[in-house]
Design brief:
Blueprint lengths: L2 H11 L12 E4 L9 E5 L4 H9 L4 E4 L16 H11 L3 E4 L2 H5 L4 H8 L3 E6 L5 E10 L1 H12 L5 E3 L5 E10 L4 H6 L4 E6 L2 H9 L3 E4 L2 H5 L2 H13 L2 E4 L9
Parallel strand pairs: 2-3, 2-11, 3-4, 8-9, 9-10
Antiparallel strand pairs: 1-4, 5-6, 6-8, 7-10
Amino acid sequence: MTVKELYDRLSLTFPDSLRCDWDRDGLMLCANPAKPVGRVLTALDVTPAAVQAAIEAEADVIISHHPVFFHPLPALTRTVPAADKALNLLSHGISVMCFHTRADAAPGGVGDLLADTMELADVASAGENGILKIGVLPRHLTAMELAAQVKDKLATPAVTVADAGAPIRFLAVCGGEGDDMIEAAKAGGADALLAGRVGYHKMQDAAEAGLTVLEAGHWYTEIAVTALFARLVEEASGAEVIRFTEPPVAVV
């Protein structure tokens, strides 16, 4: 299977129609779309460490959740960090394909993986492009009981909680940034919103308006998608897959 064939196959699971208008993703770096794919590295972010791991593994492709480029490059020189990564990858014949908001929204994607982890039933989609998922917890929980479950299930070192003070049964979940999902969570009847990051003041305002909000960390709410990418690649191509799971930001 070639780079372009692999991208086209994965795009069946993560179609362009699910991409938010503001997003940047796709086959973002590719010198030779006809290159055969024998080894793939999956990652949440195309960090310098992930690039180095791909080079050392002699990978043909990196598949990431977050875009390798989100803003236009001011120059293609070694003095520009994003350009430096691109030059390193191109010089080693490594392509990069990214599936961002369309992997958030896709059936079985980031939102559904988070909902499954929290053991939600009757999950429905809400918010922009269906990225937000709302489901029913197995039983009513207090905010602190839910926070303890989140910490355990996501293996996150810390959970920040803005407690609205009411029992929680209907939970909205959103991997990564969730500050723009508060209104959708309320409109969907959620008692609480779990996201990677929301922000102090927005969490406070939401709790005062009756919605408990929990922050569990951007990386911890999304890292499971790298295993999904790996499984899809193995099923589609039989290529060897390496999961890169080193968080770029540490909580200490």
